[in-house]
Protein: UDP-galactopyranose mutase
Organism: Aeromicrobium panaciterrae
Amino acid sequence: MTADLLIVGSGFFGLTIADRCARELDLKVQVIDRRDHIGGNAYSEIDPETGIEVHRYGAHLFHTSNKRVWDYVNQFTDFTPYVHHVYTTYKDEVFPMPINLGTINQFQRAAYTPEEARAWVVEQAAMLEGEPTNLEEKAISLIGQPLYEAFIKGYTAKQWQTDPRELAAEIISRLPVRYTYDNRYFSDTYEGLPVDGYTAWLEKMADHPNITVTLDTDFFDESQPWNKADVVGQIPVVFTGPIDRYFDFKHGDLSWRTLDFESEVLPIGDFQGTPVMNYADESIDYTRIHEFRHFHPERDYPDDKTIIMREFSRFAEHTDEPYYPVNTPQDRERLLSYRELAKDEANVLFGGRLGTYQYLDMHMAIGAALSMYDNKLAPHFTNGLPLD
Ligand code: FAD
Ligand code: NA
């Protein structure tokens, strides 16, 4: 077993580093992942019952305005012209999201012009007196009580399993309202879904004679190859697992939200007519339902069955998959002390969403990995500069 570099984690961050180091620098790269599949949270698989591609860790939509990232990812896959839209059900009525002129006019049974809608929202928002002291007040100060009650309150309470009046105002800095009928979800220059699915894309990145991917292998399990005790100090390591775990939770746990998914195959061709339906009412336990067939209208999927996935949100325990950083003031303080430890950890670089305790979209994870390659790994391996 020899390699020039060990990468812990086969998500987009790890595979981007693997690709650049193998293809550009001709290094021998070993990648390990503790899961039984490649790709981290972007992994998808074909549901055996319906033949429909399912994103196992929640719907993944690719979008970016970064030309370098877009050109980079297009080496590995083509993209469909898919454009994401989201709707929300509130009190048995369906509204377009994000909140836009169509949402407001439907909600108010009105025909406001953009200017009239803006004036209405400003008037509602002005009703909050004083500085907002919690998330609820902050939201009301931004969009007013009526829109908050309908579209934010229940959804947020379910996402955080906490009354929004007990959540910090800082969790939201803005709640965008569009005063046009544009309900395209993302506003990036480039958007689409990988034509042959996420897993084919991720596998293509790893498909090189210099790259070895070993699954079911945990960096912290000393009975397995490529574990921390054996490797650190021997060869450089890029670590994309949780930074608090790396340091044995020495400064305490960083807190995360996790998601639970329940999927169901239904004997009908179309359940909801759209890929993602949010549920704004607090009385419905789940936050949203994904119907995967709608991500690929170009595919030949069966018209007598469909697969849906209900999404539930809660705080993560040690054994749960960490999904979204909670980012309390205590978390931020702990993160700073972990960053200090990371700096002193010679020949180990920390990256990706777990290694930096940051929510990163796929294009951000890829962009950050390309920067780490440019700024740290290439200078180290070509000019012998230290890795720190
Ligand atoms: P990950 O994909 O998490 O990969 C890290 C890998 O490290 C994992 O495979 C893990 O098993 C492995 N690992 C951890 N610890 C160890 C260990 N001890 N030993 C070995 N391996 C280990 N992005 C978008 O652009 N669009 C979206 O629509 C979108 N939707 C999302 C929905 C959800 C619910 C979530 C959670 C994320 C979403 N993302 C989306 C973000 C996307 O998943 C991330 O950008 C991407 O996963 C980041 O890649 P990564 O390599 O940093 O981390
Ligand atoms: Na380091």
About this structure: The radius of gyration is 23 Å.
